[in-house]
């Protein structure tokens, strides 16, 4: 089971190209499915990279599952799926998973288990380059799920997918969370906000709202998350 606080961030500062992308961010992320929503370029990927331990930070601390982000102790406890494909197009689905399982020091059975968890057991012998966009996303997710991580970090995994595939993936995220894994998913699609247990709204490197979707809407006196986001940005909410 994941701890109550899967991620604790204090005073995070990330500088890229001489500009502070994130400056003094404090944040706690708990169990369930947490959505990180905001427009492209607001710092979502930078924040996720910091949590995954692959981003150089200028100041502050990022603690993941009780350990410093990126530490060796987290190698098989954090699953991370980037926006760009992390699998090999010229290998079959199961070959990809077995390769990454070996990298992580996991037994071959872990590959089959991960494949089953994303409902792709029947596609194990198919070359990844021949899969649909939705199936490719599932393979990337299966790689991130190898070893049953306690924290799953997903950077816009539903981008470019049709509504049916997006619905199915979100259902999968919740099934994973139900097993005790904390799931953190980023998106720039506001209508995905309602699918989250907890929602983080981000703009220009800052978290401008943190809470359940219903709480955020109620605090701003609006009926949808997009309106809540605009109200927060424009300072016209009721809170």
TrEMBL record:
**Protein name, as recorded:** ABC transporter ATP-binding protein
- Which PROSITE patterns does its entry note? ABC_TRANSPORTER_1 (PS00211), ABC_TRANSPORTER_2 (PS50893)
Q: Could you tell me which Pfam families the record lists for this protein?
A: ABC_tran
The record's annotation in InterPro entries points to: AAA+_ATPase, ABC_transporter-like_ATP-bd, ABC_transporter-like_CS
Q: Which GO terms describe its molecular function?
A: ATP binding
Q: Where is the ABC transporter domain?
A: 7-229
| Native organism | Nocardioides daeguensis
Query: Which keywords fit this entry according to its UniProt record?
Result: ATP-binding, Nucleotide-binding
């Amino acid at each position: 089971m994941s701890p109550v606080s899967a991620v604790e961030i204090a005073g995070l500062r990330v500088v890229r190209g001489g500009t502070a992308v994130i400056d003094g961010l404090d944040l706690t992320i708990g169990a369930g499915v947490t959505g990180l929503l905001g427009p492209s370029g607001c710092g979502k990927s930078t924040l996720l990279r910091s949590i995954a331990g692959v981003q150089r930070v200028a100041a502050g601390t990022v603690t993941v599952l009780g350990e410093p982000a990126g530490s060796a102790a987290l190698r098989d406890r954090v699953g991370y799926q980037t926006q760009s494909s992390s699998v090999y197009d010229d290998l079959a689905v199961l070959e990809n998973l077995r390769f990454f399982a070996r990298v992580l020091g996991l037994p071959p059975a872990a590959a089959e288990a991960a494949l089953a968890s994303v409902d792709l057991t029947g596609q194990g012998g198919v070359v990844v380059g021949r899969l649909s966009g939705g199936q490719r996303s599932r393979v990337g997710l299966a790689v991130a799920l190898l070893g049953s991580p306690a924290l799953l970090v997903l950077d816009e995994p539903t981008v470019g997918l049709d509504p049916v595939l997006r619905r199915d993936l979100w259902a999968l995220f919740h099934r994973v969370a139900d097993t005790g894994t904390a799931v953190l998913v980023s998106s720039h699609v506001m209508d995905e906000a309602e699918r989250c247990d907890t929602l983080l709204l981000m703009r220009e490197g800052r978290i401008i709202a943190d809470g359940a979707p219903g709480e955020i809407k109620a605090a701003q006196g609006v009926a949808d998350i997009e309106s809540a986001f605009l109200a927060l940005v424009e300072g016209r909410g009721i809170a």
